[in-house]
Write a structure and sequence with these properties.
mainly alpha, globular, single chain
Length: 198
Amino acid sequence: MIDEIIQREWEFFQKVNNIGGRASCQDDFETFYLQRKGQFEVFGEELRQSYLQDLKDAKKLGRNLLMEKYAYMMESTDPQYFQSIQDQLPIRDEQQKELINYICQIEVQMREEFNQQYPHLASLMRYTHSYEDQQDDTSFETYLRGELSTYSPHTLWLYGKMIAHMLEKQENMIMLIMERTIKAYGYSSLDEAEKKNQ
């Protein structure tokens, strides 16, 4: 199922038109695959199934969820341009916005914990906070908010449930995703990757 999700995302990604032309990452399937796989491995089965259905539904409706994700990010990175396109995007109701804000607050805290524990790895990643955004440099928080904004209400609810469950178990989603990602690159652990990237 993970491979199907990533393949469907990749097809959408190929059709995203950047203002400055095609981005180099649109020609790098291997990096796209490894980074997305690490995330979807952390998702539970029900959440994966729901998001896969979102992707299928979007295709039927002629929507491109990845284009919408990058468009939502512009609310922070390019507010003026975002105002000119926001009418073309699906409306997020107040309940969805509240849940997205709640999730973002928690995950930013998780990312801050990761930054403290693995500063060298963190320095190779996106900036953490939306206030650090630049037009060509999107933060983790803004990227997350953009992605969550494309989820259907059901998928978003399941995602929020997963985050709440992780909080209860004192798990850090960023650690879990990064651990899977760096292992895909051949490291045995986050600690080894941190040492080798000093």
